[in-house]
Amino acid sequence: MKLYLIGMPGSGKTTLGRALAAHYALPFLDLDAEIVARAGQVIPAIFLQHGEAHFRQLEADVLREIAARPGPLVLATGGGTPCFHNNLAVLNAAGITLWLDVSVDTLAARLAAAAETASRPLLATAGPTEAWLRKTLDARKQFYEQARLRCTEAACSASAVAAQFATAGVALPPA
Ligand SMILES: Nc1ncnc2c1ncn2[C@@H]1O[C@H](COP(=O)(O)OP(=O)(O)OP(=O)(O)O)[C@@H](O)[C@H]1O
Ligand SMILES: O=C(O)C1=C[C@@H](O)[C@@H](O)[C@H](O)C1
Ligand SMILES: [Mg+2]
């Protein structure tokens, strides 16, 4: 069983993904990091040199490769992953999707640091962070809502999510 974390930039997919992988003793992968390794360029450079459409194609290709691998893993997706190239269908077909449903206020506070913005090209070029987050969440919610499971902000810790999985009968290795 593969576990796929989806949600807005700053919602904590990478952070929670690492924690859940440790909790269940599963391999952890971060889709953004896999794309960087494949392209040999950091994400802002991919956007700058080749544009978003090229990034989205790479993202879709690498996602499908990971989904086709045998064995369980935890994958932190990119913020936009479920919203392009029918990726949501791939995610829901091959594993359990979990949406980290975090408020715009919290996202804005977490992403306020300059280093957080610089590594996220859509944010870096968008103008005021909070307005971009609100507009983007409005557009993406229809995709995120199709996740099989959802954690709201206070319950997005590894222990709370593991308890939710146990209740939902999600078949992951015992912690
Ligand atoms: N539960 C949490 N409580 C407080 N801060 C958090 C929490 N989860 C993540 N953060 C912080 O928020 C920032 C963004 O987290 P993270 O990189 O895990 O988000 P992400 O969803 O992977 O973002 P992206 O989509 O851009 O890759 C980091 O500085 C991280 O330390
Ligand atoms: O929200 C988005 O569309 C993105 C989020 C990041 O995880 C990266 O995948 C990239 O910067 C695009
Ligand atoms: Mg991340």
Question: What descriptive keywords fit this protein?
Answer:
binds adenosine-5'-triphosphate; five-stranded parallel β-sheet; 13% strand; 175 residues; alpha/beta; binds (3R,4S,5R)-3,4,5-trihydroxycyclohex-1-ENE-1-carboxylic acid; 10 helices
Please, could you describe this protein's structure?
The protein has 175 residues and is α/β, with parallel strands linked by helices. It has a single domain, classed as Rossmann fold (3-Layer(aba) Sandwich), CATH 3.40.50.300. 55% of the residues lie in helices and 13% in strands. The chain is built from ten helices and five strands, in the order E-H-E-H-H-H-E-H-E-H-H-H-H-E-H. It has helices spanning 13-24, 31-39, 43-50, 52-68, 87-94, 104-110, 114-118, 121-124, 129-144, 158-168; strands at residues 2-6, 28-30, 73-76, 95-101, 149-152. Strands 2-3-1-4-5 form a five-stranded parallel beta sheet. The chain is globular. The mean pLDDT is 93. (3R,4S,5R)-3,4,5-trihydroxycyclohex-1-ENE-1-carboxylic acid (SKM) is lined by residues 9, 32, 43, 78-80, 120-122. Pathway: Metabolic intermediate biosynthesis; chorismate biosynthesis; chorismate from D-erythrose 4-phosphate and phosphoenolpyruvate: step 5/7. GO terms for molecular function: ATP binding; magnesium ion binding; shikimate kinase activity. Substrate binds at residues 32, 56, 79, 140. Belongs to the shikimate kinase family. It comes from Hymenobacter sedentarius.
